Amino acid sequence: AQSVAQPEDQVNVAEGNPLTVKCTYSVSGNPYLFWYVQYPNRGLQFLLKYITGDNLVKGSYGFEAEFNKSQTSFHLKKPSALVSDSALYFCAVRYRGRRALTFGSGTRLQVQP
Amino acid sequence: SQTIHQWPATLVQPVGSPLSLECTVEGTSNPNLYWYRQAAGRGLQLLFYSVGIGQISSEVPQNLSASRPQDRQFILSSKKLLLSDSGFYLCAWSLGEGWTEAFFGQGTRLTVV
Question: For residue A76, what is the enclosing H or E element?
Answer without folding.
Answer: strand A73-78
